[in-house]
Amino acid sequence: MRILRSNRCRLCIFCVMLVFIPACATGQVDSHPAQKETVGQNTAAAAQPASSTHGTDPNNADVLGSLWTDVWTLPDTIVEESLDILDTDKNLMYLLLAGGASIAMHNTNMDSEIAENFNLNRALGKEVDEIVSNLGGPGVHFAVTGLWYAISVDKGDELNKQRSWTMMKALSVTGATTITLKLIVNNDAPNEKWPAWPSGHTASSFTVASVLDELYGPEVGFPAYLAAGFVGYRMMDSGDHWASDVVFGAVLGWIVGHHIGREQKMMELAGFEINPYTNITPTGPAVGISLVKRF
């Protein structure tokens, strides 16, 4: 199985990222330009069928209707955001450097040496290992983000609805990319679990930390990065991943999280929330945006 971790296998990843995936997705991106609209612009008509269901709580219907409408935009969003990320020179450079570092770590046997050192000097007990594995997993990240979204919709909190959906988009892009790369590389971890490269736990944890850093600043971002780093440490300590898996996963999550989180951050103007505005006036309907400041 070690032959699967060869340079040719790693270089194949970048061919796929730079050529195959964008080429296959171009038609979808051009045919659905409206899907890049923000999640806050969902129409009331889209949610109305769910709210009119007999025997259904209107609040729950609003949450499900909004979520159902937004979920349908995810496939196009994943493609569009992935293309945007690859189209940014700085992001592409970081990904190539991370891929090069993975190749170097394999060629110098650094992966094997680090894995052997962790195997001989296990630091985490079974209980801590399981807790970190569960909390640092993509499944928990998606579940918590979904709960955040549902509570925001139920309370009519447009800002947190936008922020939670930003997190959902970032996690989706990271998850789709990670799964694709895992299936292409198709290699075993030190403990022979499959597949290894890159680390999905690490990528997802760094995505969460990066989005939080963009939305709330270093006061929230720094502790989140420490937690994400600990997740990466656990992946190596348990033998679930090689060091190169963790390195690339961390860089991938960092890039995706900051790129998508920055888009949401740009929607906030001088600390004001930017919300859609509609009103019926004597001369007809008025549509625009409103700036809201909470004290």
Give the biggest beta sheet.
2 strands, antiparallel
Shape: elongated
Give average pLDDT, whole number: 78
Summarize the helix and strand pattern as letters: HHHHHHHHHHHHEE
Percent helix, as a range, is: over 70%
Proportion of residues in β-strands? 5-15%
Number of helices: 12
Task: Evaluate the radius of gyration.
Answer: 21 Å
**Beginning-to-end CA distance, first to last residue:** 59 Å
Number of strands: 2
How are strands sequenced across the largest beta sheet? 1-2
How many structural domains?
Answer: 1
Structural class: mainly alpha
pLDDT < 50 runs, ≥5 residues = 1-56
Q: What does the model show?
A:
This protein is mainly alpha-helical and about 300 residues long. It has helices at about 5-30, 45-50, 60-70, 75-85, 90-105, 110-120, 125-135, 140-155, 160-185, 200-215, 220-235, 245-265, and strands at about 275-280, 285-290. The chain has one domain (about 1-290). Strands 1-2 form a two-stranded antiparallel sheet. Strand 1 (about 275-280) and strand 2 (about 285-290) form a beta hairpin. Helix 1 packs across helix 4 (about 75-85) and helix 10 (about 200-215) runs parallel beside helix 12. The relative contact order is 0.12.
